Amino acid sequence: MEFCRLDRNAVDELATLEALCFTLPWSKEQLANAFGLPHFAAFGLRAPLRKGSGTGDDAPLAAYLSVYHNPDELEILNLAVAPAWRGRGHGSRLLRLVLRMAAKMGIGRAVLEVRSGNTPALALYTGQGFVQVGRRRGYYRDSGEDALVLEDSEAGILAAIRGKIPVIAVPDLIEPRPELLSRCRARCDSLLDVIRYIA
Ligand SMILES: CC(C)(COP(=O)(O)OP(=O)(O)OC[C@H]1O[C@@H](n2cnc3c(N)ncnc32)[C@H](O)[C@@H]1OP(=O)(O)O)[C@@H](O)C(=O)NCCC(=O)NCCS
């Protein structure tokens, strides 16, 4: 699996993945608008086309995660793994990779909302150190389900850094050399800038 940053060229495949994974999926238009926002970013895991082969932009998107980010906080918007790729650790791996990048940026807090009945997602998030900090009653308009607000504070994010991170195809994105990181920090003021800079 190759970890990648996604841009607006991925809108069609993201809309397909959204429709497969959510009862209230983001439309192509919503996704395209989001890519126009400076604080929005999306990341994916692409599957190799054949066993042992490399990946590229035309490799199928197995998973994606979108965020809003600011210097203090990462808001996880959506995490989706294509049904055929579920249960193999890809969702947790993608989350860990993004938390790790955020931690390297000095972002100390991650938050998200999840349906109270979404057992797989709750297991994934709590397994990564997220804890419940709130509940929004009747939040989801389709089912009336509550939203649970989960947070991963600095301790959790730092634990993700210390955790075992899988080998991926863009080493500098994961293990930026210290001198590169400090240059990044001096020149970039957003997560997206840093990713652009070190990718
Ligand atoms: C939730 C979702 C992202 C999980 O992705 P995944 O790649 O299958 O998850 P992982 O394989 O990384 O599993 C991580 C943990 O979640 C739990 N989990 C995953 N699927 C589960 C299931 N069907 N039932 C119970 N727990 C489950 C397991 O505890 C697992 O931990 P383990 O490694 O100790 O077994 C995926 O099911 C999905 O895309 N669902 C639809 C979209 C969605 O609900 N997104 C989250 C809301 S934003």
Give a description of the structure.
The chain has 199 residues and is an alpha+beta fold. It has one domain: 3-Layer(aba) Sandwich (Aminopeptidase), CATH 3.40.630. Helices cover 37% and strands 25% of the residues. It is built from 8 helices and 7 strands; from the N terminus they run βααβββαβαββαααα. A 7-stranded mixed β-sheet has the order 1-2-3-4-5-7-6, with helices on both faces. β4, α3 and β5 form a beta-alpha-beta unit. α3 crosses α5 and α7 crosses α8. The longest helix has 15 residues. It is globular. The relative contact order is 0.15. About 7% of the residues have low confidence. The structure holds coenzyme A. The site of coenzyme A has 21 residues, from β4, α3 and α4. The site of coenzyme A (COA) has 21 residues, from β4, α3 and α4.
* Strand runs, count: 7
Helix proportion range: 25-40%
Main-sheet strand order equals 1-2-3-4-5-7-6
Overall shape? globular
Shape-level CATH architecture: 3-Layer(aba) Sandwich
- Unreliable segments (pLDDT under 50, ≥5 consecutive)? 164-177
Number of domains: 1
**How many angstroms separate the termini?**
17 Å
Number of helices: 8
CATH third-tier fold name:
Aminopeptidase
Which structural class should the secondary elements be placed in? alpha+beta
